[in-house]
Amino acid sequence: MKTKQAVNPYLPSWEYVPDAEPHIVDGRVYIYGSHDLFNGLNFCLGDYVCWSAPVDDLGNWRYEGVIFKREQDPAAPKIRLTNGLAAPDMIQGSDGRFYLYYFMGGTKMISVAVCDKPAGKYEFYGYVKYADGTPIGKKEEPLQFDPGIFMDDDGKLYLYTGFALQGNPLLLDGSKPTEHGAMCFELDPADMLTVKMGPKYIGIASEKEAPGSSYEGHPFLEASSMRKFNGTYYFIYSSLNSHELCYATSDNPTEGFEFGGVLVSNGDIGLPGITDVKNARNCTGNTHGSLIEINGSYYVFYHRHSNRKQSSRQACAERIRFENGKFYQAEMTSCGLNDGPLKGKGNYPSYIACNVYGKKGTRFLSMIKHFKSGHPYLTQEGKDREQGSDQYVANMCDGAVAGFKYFDLRETSKVRINIKGKATGVVYVTTEEGGKPVAKIQVKPCKEQHGFAADLSGLGEKEALYFSYKGTGAFDFMSFDLK
C-alpha cells in the first residue's frame, strides 16, 4: 500500500543525486548515482550516497546513507574540485556480493568497490585491468568514463564506457575521446575485474560517424548503460545534444546496435512544438540515467538542473510507453513515479514544477550561473544541507511560467499560491500553455510569505496547471494549495 504520492524530483528537494542507475534487490529499488552539492563549483563533489524505495511504494524513499567515500580509493587525487566521483553503476556478482563500478576524475581508470549489502558500507576492491595487470585507461584506448556494468543471463559480465566530446576539460590529462562510440569489455565474473575481451566498439556512432547513419542527430557522447528486455539488448546513452537520453538495440550485447530513439529530454525537446534549447520547457544541461521495469511498467530515470547552472542536478523519473520493443519519448511531469495524476487537494511545493521558463525562453546551462533578468529558476536558501527548507521557483517576473503536470481536478474548487516578493500584477492559471485562463489571481507586494487565491472549477481528471505572471516586479513562488 502506498504511504504517499510520488512527485518529481522523487528525492527530497535538498538532495542532488544525478546520473541515477536504478536496480531492484529483494523488492526495493536502489538508486546509484553521482552526488552533486547545491551550488557546487563542479560536478560530483560529494561522496556516494544511496536511496531506496519499495517497488510497490515509489513515493516512499529512504536514505541509506553514505556508501562510499572518495578517500577510500587509493588513487584519489588530492584535489577534489576537479576530480569528483562520477556516475557509478552496480551489479550483484555470482558470489552474492554487490560491486560498485565508478570513475574518478584524474585517475583514467575504472574503479570497483564491494559490499555484502546493496546499500551498506562499500570497501575499495580494485581497478578493472587487463590480464597483464595494467588497468584499463592506462594504455592507448580512449577515456574510460561513466561505466555501465551488465551481467547477461548466461553469467557473462560486460562493462561499457566511453566519452566522445572533443576539447573537453576531462581530456586535459592527455586522454583522448572515443571517435567510434561506446566501448565494451567482457570481464571475468570470477574476480569481476579482469578483462577477457576488449575494448570493442559496439556500433554506437560518435559525431564523425553519425551522418548518414541511424544515429544522425543523436551521436554518442557519454552515460553508458545496458538493459535487456524480452531478449533484446537496450543500450542507453546521452547523445552529443547532452540534454537527452537515447537508446539503441541489438540481439547481441557486444555488436550490431542500431538507433532506437529518444527516451527523455530534460527540456522536453523533441516533443511536438519543442525544437531546441531556446524554446525548451526548462533550462537544459547534461543528463544521464537508465531504464527499469517495475511491476510490469517501464520507467526512465534521468536528472534535471537547478540554481541557474549545471552542477546542482536532481533525480527525476517518468513512466515511459513501451510497445512492440520500442520506447516512446517520455514527457517531463511533476508526478513521474506516481503512475497517475496527483490529487486535486492539498499543498504542493513549487519545486515539483516540470516546466519553468520566461518570456526570454531558456538556455543550455554552463558551470557559471546564468543571469537572473527575465528568467525564473529553481533554487534554495542557504548552503548544501541534508535537511531543511524546500526548494522553490525564484524570480517569477513578467512573462514567467511555472508548469505542473498532472492533477485530478474534478473536485477542486479553489487554488491559492503562496509567494513573497515585490510583484504587482496577475497570475493567470491555465490548463494549457498559453490557453484560456481558468483562474486569475491578483498579487501584490509582501515581505513575508502570503497566500493569494481564486476559485477553480469544472476541470477534469488529468489536467496540467500553468501559472503565468503578468505585471511589474517579481516574486518567489513557494507553494500552492488546491482545495
From TrEMBL:
Gene3D superfamilies: Glycosyl hydrolase domain, family 43 (2.115.10.20). Keywords: Carbohydrate metabolism, Glycosidase, Hydrolase, Polysaccharide degradation, Xylan degradation. Coiled coil: none annotated. GO terms for biological process: xylan catabolic process. GO terms for molecular function: hydrolase activity, hydrolyzing O-glycosyl compounds. The record marks 146 as: Important for catalytic activity, responsible for pKa modulation of the active site Glu and correct orientation of both the proton donor and substrate. It comes from the Bacteria. Pfam families: Glyco_hydro_43. Belongs to the glycosyl hydrolase 43 family. PANTHER family: ENDO-1,4-BETA-XYLANASE (PTHR43772), PUTATIVE (AFU_ORTHOLOGUE AFUA_2G04480)-RELATED (PTHR43772:SF2). This is Family 43 glycosylhydrolase. It comes from Blautia segnis.
